[in-house]
Design brief:
By secondary structure, this protein is α+β, with helices and mostly antiparallel strands. It has a single domain (about 1-105), classed as Hypothetical protein apc22750. Chain B (Translation Initiation Factor IF3), CATH 3.30.110. It contains 2 helices and 4 strands. The protein has a 4-stranded mixed β-sheet with strand order 1-3-4-2. Strand 3 (about 75-85) and strand 4 (about 95-105) form a beta hairpin. The two termini are about 15 Å apart.
């Protein structure tokens, strides 16, 4: 499945628009991850714990979006956008959303 942020794919003709598709992931950050990230804040540097959580959430959101596109009979998703939000009373949840237009290419 081709997924791209562009509205079209070079050399390919869009034959059919199947609709807008989404992939959403809500991920919690547990106490140990939060503690490890806090150490990065104190001593400086990057938080590998949070970065890995973000990478995993993004990959899962894209995979879910692509699966929903495939369920509609699409073989590509164009105009992909990613959105990131923090949720919860203490901002302990991360929401990652991938969205785009499912299409069938020639």
């Amino acid at each position: 499945m081709i997924s791209t942020t562009t509205p079209s794919i070079d050399g390919k003709k869009i034959l059919e628009y199947k609709g807008i598709v989404f992939g959403e992931v809500i991920s919690g950050v547990d106490f140990l991850k939060d503690f490890a990230a806090g150490l990065s804040n104190i001593f400086g540097g990057r938080s590998g714990t949070y970065e890995e959580e973000l990478i995993q959430a993004r990959e899962n959101a894209i995979a879910e979006m692509e699966q929903r596109a495939a369920n509609l009979g699409a073989n590509a998703v164009v105009g992909v956008k990613m959105d990131y939000e923090v949720l919860g009373s203490n901002n302990g949840m991360l929401m990652v959303t991938a969205s785009g237009t499912a299409v069938r290419l020639e």
